[in-house]
Please model this.
Amino acid sequence: MGSVRLPKKLQIDMNNTLQKSYPGLAKKLNIQNLWIKHEYLNESGSHKIRLMKHLIDEYFKKRKNNFVISSSGNAAIAAAYYLNKYRKKNFKLMIFVSKNISANKWQRLKSATGKTKNIIIKKVVRPKQQAFLFGKKYKFILLRGSEKRNSPQAYYSLARELIKIPNLRTVFVPSSSGITALGLYQTFNKLKKKIEIHIVQTEKIYSLSKDFDHDFSPKQESLATAIVDKIALRKKEVSEMIKKSLGSGWIINDQSLKEAKKIYQQIDSSFKSYDSLLSLAGVIKAKQKNWPLRGTVCCLFTGL
Model:
């Protein structure tokens, strides 16, 4: 689909995305082993398709198939893509996105929507508010993972893929609502795997990380645009999870994102996703703060 169409040899299903060791990068960052999990190789271009599939399938089982979503881009793209490809005609989807959505995500969203009349997209000033009001008025299901207690289950498969990495000790996760990190922790815990979870946020949105990282200056904007959840409904749960995993939270500024991009583009000059590079910037900041990163560290590259 559009910008995420890949050569056949690189096309990967929504599960079992590429995870690869980068010894040169590990040496540069002075850590033992570094792996990257390339979730942007999922069908829709981000890890969000795991969550959308989980939510949508659950509602279809209950014979509910009219949905509304607000999104910075990737969640809406994933919902549109999954419904359009796997559910065909038996649904309706109303999408509210910001008027400031990036050109890249807007084109991907339009591509995921295709020519179907079952999906309508609106650019608005307050997408979350508009989605909530629309759902309440027309009885559409609001696709918002942070409000569903079992949402972390969507990422159990991701955790099972990650534990195949040799001597995995630490995972850095770009986090908005914290759902992905919770899913990883719950699975690792069930499998009795002691793995540190580190969440990474921006100087624009830092509600989940501010109790762990105080070295930042709040900003009105960030190069990483997918971190949008200011409310943080699961803050207490996420905070407890981080402490139990012996991990931390990190807040990244734009300069650090640019530095992470410069470092990573020595490996892949075409990669430009600041949202994914948050995890690498988190590793760099942790090293600067003398966090003891032992064993294998994995960066989750969440989306395009």
